[in-house]
Amino acid sequence: MPRVLTDTRQTLGTATTCVLVFLIVLRLASLAGYPLMDTTEGRYGEIARKMAERGDWITPWFTDSEPFWGKPPLAFWLTAASMRIFGVNEFAARLPHFLMAAAIVVLTFGWARRAGMRRPVYVLPLLATTVLFWMVSGAVTTDMALCLGTALSMRGFWLALQGPAEHRRRETWIFFAGLWITLLAKGPVGCVLILLPVGVWSLWTRQARSVWRAVPWLRSGALLVAVAAPWYAFAEARTPGFLDYFFIGEHWNRFVVAGWQGDRYGSAHAFPRGTIWLFLAGAIFPWSIVVPLAAWRARQRKSTSLQVDGASDTQAQPSFMRYLLICGLAPCVVFTAAGNILWTYVLPGLPPLALAAALWLGPRDDGFARRALLAGTLLATALFVGRLLDLTAGGRAEAKSAEAVVQLYRAQLQPEAPLAFVQERMFSAAFYSAGQALHIADPLQLAHERPHELLFVAMPRVALAQLPKAVWPCLQVVGDAGSYRLFLRKPCTEQSAAMASHAGANQEGGEGEWKN
Questions:
Q1: Of 43, 279, 274, 21, which is closest to residue 140 (Cα–Cα)?
Q2: What digits encode the pLDDT tens for the residues 474-495?
């Protein structure tokens, strides 16, 4: 091979590695760079903060008196434990999810090596720089915990059958450990995302009998139930009604009933059936563009695009490629008929899809493959840097969080005067105020809530027109922060309260006249 060509390929590989390391460091550094945003990060961050504060590791709490039955506790356990170590802040809340993402990348790379792939290193940029994986790696959600469980099980199953003989017993236990994680991260839906592709692949390749013999399904399955069931039993005993809501509501009605109205913690997300496939295309960007373009380019250069020193990985391991594609597309298949979905539902499919792309790229001309990887990594870098600038310098994160207005309130140095949020119930307000912020749903109540006390009031600027005129004499503007305006409400007289009530009667069914 000409030395110039070798040097060029090494340069491409080094450049890709440097950009990838930069993105990883950037993501780690960004964890503390912007506030928790509502509703998802604020909600899950506050639930974990309550768990750490109360020491209640059985029941996640939605409010001080309402349990959160929407998700099992694994992600909350990890986030709460991080807060116990590093304090209640954005870095502590997001760090466990970043570490789980790093673990998934390492596990996937190890899977590629043990599966005998030609270029296992290719999987690193293909997975770490997909837009969904990168974003969720620094977000307070329950999705990365689910992805960790499915990645462990998908890897463990394959290597228990096809990996080195000395490691197969260990990989079997890894398979069931992944199932346990999914049960405590999301519930039975996680097991479906694992067992469905395993069953389909076993039947498609006619290996069902060998699969049954290779994996101790009954013994390990019984152990799985024994270690996962206690939390579910304790949760039902602590807050009766949990099992019915979780299994029937969250695992059936949420996906079958479009616009399901039974959600206790928000609103359902209604989309046309099949939208999950569009979410997948967006989730794997930029590789949803780069890999098809690389495939088209490879067809144009068919005589030179494959390595000449042996068969391609896809030719040598067709069964492996089938398994990866089945696992990668399983979330889309499961949620095709669902109307209530989010784009994060495709996250468990990203590790096997990254492996499938690396398996295809492996036997290609090394310079061709490395140019494709560098192009995709650079495109991802531009996207992610732009996203972070939008969240920080652009103020998008601040606009979706109550952190700035809580800080403005604290700067007034009047802790004896509580802070109340009017109209909207922001979870980030509870998180940043350590659960002390009050909530006033109706602006008309401003004249009646602790009428003889000083009260700081935060209200979305877009909703200021709903404040009745009679309340304004009681309010002194402190300043604007994020999407809020902070007021100091002075003690209201009985006359002011009566005027506010009269104004409320006149405004019923209409809008206030005051404009911002």
A1: 43
A2: 899 999 999 999 999 888 665 4
The half-sphere exposure of 434 on its side-chain side, counting CA atoms within 13 A, is 9
C-alpha to C-alpha distance for 484 and 282, rounded to whole angstroms: 32
User: Mapped to the 3 state alphabet, what secondary structure does 438-482 carry?
Assistant: EEECCHHHHHCCCCCCCEEEEEEHHHHHHCCHHHHHHEEEEEEEC
The CB density around residue 192, as the number of other CB atoms within 10 Å, is 16
Percent of the chain, pLDDT > 90?
61
Each residue of 422-451: pLDDT tens digit? 977 789 999 999 999 999 888 888 877 777
Helix (H, G, I), strand (E, B) or coil at 19: helix
Structure tokens at 52: 């750490």
What pTM was estimated for this model as a whole? 0.89
Alpha helix stretches (DSSP H) within 186-312 = 188-204, 208-214, 217-238, 242-244, 254-256, 275-283, 287-300
Taking the C-alpha atoms of residue 474 and residue 417, their distance in angstroms, rounded to an integer, is 15
Write out the two tokens for 441. 């749903």
Q: Which two tokens stand for residue 41?
A: 């990060």
Residue 280 in contact with residue 369, Cβ under 8 Å?
A: no
Q: What is the pLDDT of residues 265-297, one digit of tens each?
A: 666 566 788 889 999 999 999 999 998 888 887
Cα 208 to chain centroid distance, Å, stands at: 34
Distance between CA 447 and CA 501 in Å, rounded?
Answer: 8
Mark 286-318 as b/e (b = at least 16 C-beta within 10 Å).
bbbebbeebeeebeeeeeebbbeeeebbeebbe
Could you tell me what percent of the chain has a pLDDT over 70?
A: 86
- Average per-residue pLDDT in the chain? 86
Spatial neighbors of 170 by CB under 8 A, at least 6 apart, are none
User: Given the DSSP bridges, would you call strands 484-489 and 475-481 parallel, antiparallel or unpaired?
Assistant: antiparallel
98 with 28: CB under 8 angstroms?
yes
The CA distance from 480 to 485, in Å, is 4
Distance CA 255, CA 275 (A): 13
**Are 215 and 207 a contacting pair, CB within 8 Å?**
no
CA distance 215 to 212: 6
pLDDT digits 0-9 by tens, 353-371: 999 999 988 877 667 788 8
**Coil, strand or helix at 169:** helix
What are phi and psi for residue 438, nearest 5 degrees? -85, 165
Tokens of 445: 């109540």
Closest residue by Cα to residue 337 from 257, 265, 278, 249: 257
Q: At 211, give phi and psi (nearest 5°).
A: -65, -45
121 Cβ partners below 8 Å, 6+ apart?
109
Torsion of CA 5, 18, 376, 156, to 10 degrees: 100
Q: Residue 352: pLDDT above 60?
A: yes
> Which residues are CB-neighbours of 413 under 8 A, at least 6 positions away?
none
Structure-token pair, residue 290: 């780069």
